[in-house]
Amino acid sequence: MPMRKLHTELVDRFGNVWHHTRVRKYLTWEEWSPIIAKGRPWFGLLELLRKHPEHFVINTKWKGRAISEFVSLVSLLS
């Protein structure tokens, strides 16, 4: 699933349910340097998923300057 789509879905479904200070770290990029986040609002979520490589596989594709990031559940790949 594209990270952009996953991030949008999580924000739409849970953005108003989760406490704002807990969600901000992973669903917004306000806590991250704009240079590091590179305008990707899902950057915090990406970092969270990278902490759990036993559950998630992240693929990154570059097309010129455009970056596409995709995430998959390990259990779906096995």
Automatic annotation (TrEMBL):
Q: Which GO terms describe its cellular component?
A: nucleus
Q: Which GO terms describe its biological process?
A: regulation of ribosomal protein gene transcription by RNA polymerase II
A GO molecular function assigned to this protein is:
sequence-specific DNA binding
The record's section on InterPro entries has: Fhl1/FHA1
Keywords noted in UniProt: Nucleus
The protein depicted here goes by the name: PORR domain-containing protein
Q: Which organism is it from?
A: Aegilops tauschii subsp. strangulata (Goatgrass)
